[in-house]
Write a structure and sequence with these properties.
Elements (H helix, E strand, L loop, with lengths): L15 H25 L11 E12 L15 E10 L14 E8 L5 E8 L9 H16 L4 H11 L6 H12 L10 E2 L3 E4 L2 E9 L12 H11 L2 E9 L21 E8 L4 E2 L4 H4 L14 E2 L1 H23 L4
Antiparallel strand pairs: 1-2, 1-9, 1-10, 2-3, 3-4, 5-7, 6-7, 6-11, 7-8, 8-9
Helix pairs in contact: 1-2, 1-7, 2-3
Amino acid sequence: MPSPLKYNSSYNKLTDEERALLDINKSSIADFVEQSSAISDVPYATRNAHAKSYIVAKGEFILRQDIPEKIRPFFDREKYDLTIRLSHAHPKILRGQKEIPAYGFAIKLQDEGGKLIVNYPLVNFPLFPINSVSTFLKLFTSVNRFFVKKWSSFSLILQILRVIPSTLTVSFIKNSIQLWARRNDFFLSFDYHSVGVYRLGDYMMKIRLSPKSVDRHFGKKLKTKEALQQYLADYDFTADIMIQLCYNLEDQPINKLNVEWKNSPFIKIGELKIKKNALLDPAACENELLSFNPFESHPFFQPVGKLQKLRDEAYKVSMQTRLKINTLLKYK
């Protein structure tokens, strides 16, 4: 096996045009969050993506005992505490509607003193349909303005059409078909992915969470939140945590997120566990205000790539706006 490719900050560098578009996007994020209570009809400001919390729970990350030597230096303990948020990707909290299975599995890993080590927001689709930073920022800004300013859907449709060419890869089409075939499956039966790339010290990696022994037909007649609450009240949940390392940019591209990595085997580094009855109240103020910004992580675990770089300022704007409004509302 060749040596992993080393991290370089040049993978994250934005152009002047991209930075200008990011400033416009940040303004649209603040506008969305300020109006989000009315958009979702709730008594608090929401996130501008993954607005709906299904559950928040406590969990554990248990390190594999025979973890490869090149990975062990980044973990100095055998077990870490987790805070986990399960969510839906839509920016608006939908009620009484059939939801597409666009799910989020966000992980906050802490030491025994509660100090944050890393945030990993994972999703159940391994690819991202956009490689161009400019295209993504224009689309995301159009989505925010569609909800806030009630703009005509024409502008949003135009931006969506510009995304379509990058969805026509073999990887993207294959995974889209697989997701559609599993559209009615239970939330905890899906694999969850980092989509983008993260540092592992000087190395670069992608992450996958793979559930163990979960019936994909569980809670078929229940709403998603009810099914999750019932499952985690009656059963422990366990998932393997695996990583892929980047060895060369042709097979494992950093800034091309619409294709799967190849020729990089998955390495199991440990297990995630949620014990039954470990649920917290997702509507409690301290839980609704949880931040899973991956740029708040230790430098050795931070995101890599241009699209990932956008998350830093976007998360901060969203969090600062939510915190300000929800504190003023004395949300409980």
